[in-house]
Amino acid sequence: MKACEHMIQLILFICAIIAVLGVILISYFIINEGYPVIRKVGIWEFISGQKWAPTKEIYGIYPMIAGSLLVTIGALVLGVPIGIGCAIFMAELARPRIVEILKPGIELLAGIPSVIYGLYGLTVIVPFIRKVFNNQGFSVLAGSIVLAVMILPTIINVSESAIRSVPKEYKEASLSLGSSHWQSIKNVIVPAAHSGITAAVILGMGRAIGETMAVIMIAGNSPLVPESLLSPVRTLTGNIGIEMGYASGEHQQALFATGIVLFVFVMLLNIAANLIPKKAGE
Amino acid sequence: MRIRKILAFICAAVLLIGAFTGCAPAETKVPAGNKTEEDGVSGSITMNGSTSVQPLAEELAKVFKDKNPNTTIDIQGGGSGVGIKSAADGVVDIGMSSRDLKPEEKSLKEFKIAVDGIAVIVNPNNKVEDLSTEQIFKIYTGEITDWKEVGGDSGEITVVTREEGSGTRGAFIELTKIESKSEGDRTVASAITQGSTGAVIATIAGDPNAIGYASFGSAKESTGIKMISIDGKACTEENIYSGEYKISRPFLMLTKAEPTGLAKAFLDFILGEEGQTVISGHNYLKAVK
User: What Å distances lie between residue B256 and B23, B253, B270, CA to CA?
Assistant: First the structure.
């Protein structure tokens, strides 16, 4: 029996290692493929270069970095207030019956494939922006709107559970001191859950910055630093996604190098999310 | 007891995986392009490359397979670059390209199977019916930005292009001189860039001020867009074929060495009367008269 236990332990250990190995292999592969271009161009030139013309061997991804950040920030500006509002409503105000309806709805939102979001954006949001602003429609704004909807489930779920995990005593103490329900929410519960809510925002940001398919379909993908919210924009993921099909040689390596930069961004976000204290009220 | 059950399950799983992987080498033992007397050709080949050539190749393979049921032709996309590279590396039996080979790629055996025109497309509500190559050049390099400069209603032109590396874009910028030896690709950077023919057509169909391009075969099949004439020559089969319509390109099949077996049989079929009939049936132009 003892040998058996060891066997099982070993097998489970292998399972655990495979996941880590996946990360290591992928990181190694991306860096191995992409690094030669970064070395050739120079890291600073690569991330600050304004011009992207891979067939002319000019690799500057500053427009894509700016694009990714702009679209993501736009998505957060639109998505975070709605998401946190929804989380507060579900955790504090809604009757259980309503939560029962809302919860599966939000889960369904998370389950919609991103290409469907893209299609929706292409057929509804882009023409809408085109009509209202009388421009080409493909824009930072279109990308931000669709991404805002896409990150809602992440923000709602994580911040809802953060709000729910605030000790009951906090709320009871607040109410017994004579504050109203809304005052307790505003001054006690939400501040106590702020670390969880921050984590929710960072996770949502990670989702937004990594989204590819939907953004490609609605952002316009022009490799230019957007002049305004109504200009077309290309994100880091879009740069890889749109050009991967036909890229070869150094062009392909430059796309892997774009991947390295994206990887660093996502890693920083994950580290930031992990640094936030987990417990409510700390 | 439970642990023993789990162990048994794991053993079974390992055995099952072994059984599956055991199958793989057996399959590859089937010789590619093996000829037998009574069945004609049999075996399997793989192809990849240009997504413009791919649908046509699939149709050709279907007709070929009806006549040679013991064959398998596996066709993947990937793009012209991938097709050329895969053929050169010997990863596939036949590579597909929708652009002419560069000098350094000329070591491949190439078979021109068809000619494709690139249609310049606009929204059906656009009044413009004809543009010169000069005007197209100016629109795509950002010199002309309003439709009223080329005889249309006033409105800012939405320039739609394909991503760098795409065979259609490569052919378009070369044929319209947007790409020059000294200055490279001069497509205006603010152009909307789409990653597929379908996305370009959807964009044009939705935007009354948009201009874009797509292969004649795809554009002709699509609704919600309008093909315009170039230098007074309509984008029609006759004009592309005669060369009067300026924006056209070849469809190539590529092999690493002189093709043999099934690859040869398939290429012979494509270049034969029957294959060329299939090609013209799909609005592409025959490579051989």
Answer: 29, 10, 18
